[in-house]
Design a protein that fits this description.
The chain is an all-alpha fold and 293 residues long. It has 14 helices and no strands.
Length: 293
């Protein structure tokens, strides 16, 4: 019986390990290939990037997927950081779009979630239900209305046309509201008996109890918006304002080495943020999902 149980666990482990390798392989290829020379990249992947048919179809010949470079080269990073300022400009474009969205989304979601937590009337229940409906809708559905509103308000081709819809994202409000509902009502009542105002209850009791959930919202909002593609393409006609996530798809196939280096640099901010706040992210999502209502 023990042997059978051990065999089943081994099979499950192998299957999970196989899926993990398949999942992480593209990321490993991007990082390791960023340290290859252009010559080595052309030797391994030249068939894919140079033999494009007139119908824009890639060749069917197999390429040589290689993880370990023959000779480590930092030339791609030297080119990206010192010789090609376009990449750095696009990187900062991403930062100028994402940082205001994350800060604004956390502030707005905190106030909105506290309102839904403290107010229990029918109107607030209907509003919260509308928030859930909006959260379930794909963002692509809202692109045309966002374009029309941005055009009507004169914000089209302005960074605020991307930032403002991002600040009012409903998922953060939903997540924080679910988390706040785990705060014991007795704690709030005790504070009110001691003479605490609504503002003190919000800042001295509610916010400290929700640090992990707020951190989770910030991480998820950063990762979500760091990878934005559709919003800048539709709302920003000036290519100079596009973030790096859009610009990556326009890199010339002859500069595939730069593409690997830029993609690696692009992964660093969300990766550092995730590693720093992994504990809070898990705690915030776990507790938010454990509350009903």
């Amino acid at each position: 019986m023990k042997k059978r149980h051990y065999f089943s666990r081994s099979i499950l482990f192998l299957i999970a390990f196989l899926f993990a390798v398949l999942f992480i392989l593209p990321t490993l290829l991007t990082i390791t290939n960023s340290f290859m020379s252009q010559w080595e990249l052309s030797a391994n992947y030249g068939k894919v990037f140079s033999e494009i048919t007139s119908d824009n179809e890639y060749t069917s010949e197999k390429v040589n997927l290689k993880l370990i470079p023959d000779m480590v080269s930092f030339k791609q990073y030297f080119s990206v950081l010192l010789q090609s300022p376009d990449y750095l400009f696009k990187f900062w474009n991403s930062a100028f779009l994402v940082i205001p969205i994350v800060v604004g989304q956390v502030v707005m979601a905190t106030f909105a979630a506290y309102t839904f937590y403290r107010c229990s009337g029918r109107v607030y229940k209907i509003l919260f239900f509308i928030y859930i409906i909006l959260m379930l809708m794909p963002y692509q559905v809202m692109l045309v209305p966002n374009y029309l509103v941005a055009d009507w308000t004169g914000l089209l081709d302005n960074r605020w046309s991307v930032i403002l819809p991002g600040i009012f994202a409903p998922f953060s409000v939903f997540l924080l509201t679910k988390f706040m509902r785990r705060i014991p009502e007795a704690l709030i009542e005790s504070a009110k008996i001691d003479g605490a105002t609504e503002w003190k209850i919000f800042t001295k009791i509610c916010i400290p109890q929700c640090y992990s959930a707020i951190y989770s919202v910030a991480i998820l909002a950063f990762i979500d918006n760091w990878n934005m593609v559709e919003q800048p393409i539709i709302l920003l006609s000036d290519i100079g304002k596009h973030p790096l996530s859009v610009y990556l798809s326009n890199i010339n196939t002859e500069e595939i080495g730069l593409a690997f280096a830029v993609a690696t640099i692009y992964m660093i901010p969300p990766l550092l943020l995730f590693l720093h706040g992994e504990k809070y992210l898990v705690e915030g999502i776990t507790h938010s999902g454990s509350v009903k209502g």
